[in-house]
Amino acid sequence: MPAFYKFFLTKPLADAFRKNVSGSKDGLPDWAREIANGDDAGLFKADGAVWKVHGNLGTLVGGVRALLLQAAHPAPLSGVAQHSRYESDPMGRLAGTTRWLTITTFGSTQTIEHEAKRVNAMHSKVSGDYTDNSGKNLNYRAQDSRFLLWVHCAFTDSFIKSHLALGYALPEGADEYIRDWAKSAIPLGLTNAPKSLAELEATLNDFRKNDLARSEKTLEVVGFILKPPFGKSGLLFYRIIANAAIATLDKNELEILGLKAKSKIWLKIARGALNVFSAFLGPESPSQNLARQRILRIGQN
Fold it and tell me: DSSP code of 187?
């Protein structure tokens, strides 16, 4: 283990970070135990593209990137500022996002439907107003298809690009991941999610041209995302992850978010740190192990 990583990255730090992300030090909060329930394999095949991407610690980089990228759209950003717990309970918000992502990836269809109802109920309460990139004051609802599409694309783009930029293998290719992950949006009410890398890029370009803009809240929210309330060691690790995430954003997005480009060297530094964390935490998450047990049980019946 390189001396730099050995000094800063320890098992207690890894456990603490996992608690911040999932809400539980062992990576198995109460909601994750629901993954053991159900009588089918879920939306995605075991060890397929979605499992490989989301079962990888590279999702830490992808998650930070997704939060930053979402902040480039004034409507969802207003939703975060007006309805989110990002200031009073930022870790609770992160754990909530982790919950949806993990259950949707590894849960049975019944468990996924239950989780989607929870998320949809939350989204039904989120509405307000925002100023678009032309200066017009408009109304928004979190369940509007245009905003659902943006959030889905921001997540999809962030996870696949971070995974590949960090040098993790994906033999199935980006298209399979994007096509499969589009299924996750259907229970949330989105049926027109991109099904290929080309479609994803075209959709993102449309948003860049017509929707993305800096608002009065942009720099405030971005600043909070980049400096959450971690301890010194945790914040050092987080900065490595955040710098790697910024290194994957394009020029247009960086300009809107008020960020300077980061060297690609941060991706190599982050990969080294994640390799050490993986050694501490194990090759698979507890949630993934529960999914395997459920699928094995189904196969034996």
Answer: G
Residues 113, 218: Cα–Cα separation, whole Å: 33
Cβ contacts of 2 within 8 Å, gap of 6 or more: 272
CA atoms of 51 and 67, how far apart (whole Å):
21
Least confident residue range of 24-28, 93-97, 215-219, 224-228: 24-28
With contact defined as beta carbons under 8 Å apart, do 101 and 28 qualify? no
Band of the pLDDT at 75, cuts 50, 70, 90? confident
**265-281 vs 232-246: helix axis angle to the nearest 10?**
130
Quickly tell me which residue has 């041209």 as its tokens.
209
Full-model pTM: 0.89
Q: What are phi and psi of 273, to 5 degrees?
A: -65, -40
pLDDT digits (tens, 9 = 90+) for 238-259: 899 999 999 999 999 999 999 9
Enumerate the domain spans of the chain.
3-300
